[in-house]
Design a protein that fits this description.
This protein is about 50% helix and about 15% strand. It is of the alpha+beta class and about 475 residues long. The radius of gyration is 50 Å and the shape is rod-shaped.
Length: about 475
């Protein structure tokens, strides 16, 4: 069983949204704009298409009337037929009457609708065989007019001209009504879209409102609150999971901080109480110089313990704030481990413990020398403290092909229960063991090792079993650009 401490994931924070539009307002506005643009485009397309169709119908009616007049003129009694046609037009609605005028070569009128001169004067017509012309008279009536050159075999003779016109006032009115109808439709559609957008956005944003409400209700006394993921849409499940995970980390951090504060107070109170008691006893009555010296020497020992604890706490505080302030240099692993063995040689011999070094690979490490020695010395010191007489401690260094380095410190000590492994790197966390000798400490050693590894961008693993010893492995990444 082992536990691994890896690189911390970077957190991204976003600033407050004060002064910015809400998502609901933006979505509603975008929805309304989209509806307005789509309605306008489709309305304009429909209007243009419909007007074009009306114009085509007018041109078709004009051409159909020309063909009808020419067909009647080709008859033997064509003049009579056309005259009859003109007379019967007076019974038709004015907006449906075709306007007919037949001219000979000299421009004399042979036949003419009686109301044509009043509606459309002769000079308003375009030159024969030119494009049809839209014309509006003083009364505001709209007409589509055109002149046609007639074949010479008809009664109008060579050079005859047919002038035709139809009233398009109704088409103009229809176009105006169509524009008004489309404008009203677009306005009503936008209003309807606004109401729908408001309801849709409110319903869609309700899960976010629930998340926001849950977040507002969370206090330091209610860190166990979690967001219910079962009723959330799929897009927000990941957000809720991340938020719940963050709450879990915060709750764990607050719990550890409470334990940390209590342990810190205990660690500082014990030596201070000892100093106060010894001082009170020393001042209770007159003492000999030798007794005062003994009290002062005992006080210095407690002061040293306080200074040692404060030094470790300051290191951890600096490590949290200056995680990347390292003095990396090329280290010879063999030489570094030998120096550490020289330092611990007397303590190991005193307890009958064997120190052994194993090296695989080139044995080159790019790291901060002071921090590297401090991390490995903490591990060796812990191994000596918890290894019984006659045991052995092995420091093994392995360098991989990518130039990453693994340094492990293994012992044959009492081992640690698996339940304690996840918390061994917490500050002031200590394990009461029966297998090793009674030792004194603050529980900061492994926390310092973890901080040093995080500063180097590496990892630390611990593997242990009761009665079988413990193995702690430090993995340093390759130096950037060294591969």
């Amino acid at each position: 069983m082992f536990w691994k401490i890896g690189k911390p994931a970077s957190a991204e924070t976003s600033g407050p949204s004060d002064g910015h539009w809400s998502i609901a307002r933006r979505l509603a506005l975008l929805h309304i704009v989209a509806v307005l643009v789509s309605y306008t485009l489709f309305g304009a397309l429909f209007y243009v298409k419909r007007i074009n169709q009306l114009e085509l119908d007018s041109f078709a009616d004009l051409e159909e009337e020309r063909a009808s007049v020419v067909a009647m003129m080709e008859q033997p009694d064509g003049r009579t037929l056309i005259g009859y046609e003109i007379r019967t037009q007076q019974f038709e609605p004015e907006n449906l009457r075709p306007f007919i005028r037949i001219l000979d070569r000299e421009g004399r009128v042979l036949l003419e609708s009686p109301w044509l001169e009043r509606g459309v004067p002769r000079g308003s017509f375009p030159v024969p065989d030119r494009a049809a012309l839209r014309w509006r008279n003083a009364s505001g009536d709209h007409f589509l007019i055109k002149s046609f050159r007639l074949p010479g075999r008809l009664f109008s003779g060579p050079g005859g001209v047919l002038q035709l016109g139809i009233n398009t006032h109704e088409q103009k009115e229809l176009g105006n009504q169509l524009r008004l109808t489309l404008a009203a439709f677009i306005c009503c559609g936008v209003l309807f879209a606004f109401g729908c957008a408001y309801l849709i956005v409110r319903l869609a944003m309700k899960p976010l409102d629930d998340i926001s409400l849950t977040a507002r209700n969370i206090t330091r006394h209610r860190l166990d609150t979690r967001i219910d993921e079962t009723s959330l849409p799929a897009e927000l499940v990941s957000l809720a999971q991340s938020f719940n995970s963050m709450l879990g980390r915060l709750e764990d951090s607050f719990t550890r901080l409470s334990h940390y504060s209590a342990n810190l107070a205990h660690e500082l109170r014990t030596p201070i109480n000892t100093l106060m008691i010894e001082s009170d006893i020393a001042l209770a009555k007159e003492r000999s110089p030798q007794e005062y010296q003994r009290v002062i020497a005992s006080g210095l020992e407690e002061f040293g313990r306080l200074s040692w604890t404060i030094d470790r706490l300051m290191f951890l505080a600096r490590a949290d704030l200056e995680a990347h302030d390292l003095d990396r240099q090329r280290l010879d692993l063999c030489a570094e481990i030998d120096d550490l063995f020289d330092y611990f040689f007397d303590a190991a011999c005193e307890n009958g413990i064997t120190l052994e070094r194993q090296l695989e690979g080139p044995g080159v490490l790019f790291a901060d020398q002071t921090l590297f020695r401090r991390a490995v010395s903490n591990l060796i010191g812990n191994a000596i403290a918890y290894t019984p007489i006659g045991g052995a401690i092995v420091v093994r260094a392995t360098q991989g092909e990518d130039l990453s380095v693994r340094v492990s410190v293994s012992d044959t000590g009492c081992g640690i229960e698996q339940a304690h492994l996840p918390r061994l790197f917490d500050r002031f966390y200590r394990v009461d063991t029966d297998g090793g000798r009674k030792t004194e400490g603050t529980g900061l050693g492994l926390a310092i090792v973890k901080s040093i590894m995080l500063m180097h961008g590496g990892t630390v693993e611990i593997e242990s079993a009761p009665g079988q010893g413990t193995v702690v492995t430090l993995e340093f990444p390759a130096r950037p650009g060294s591969v």
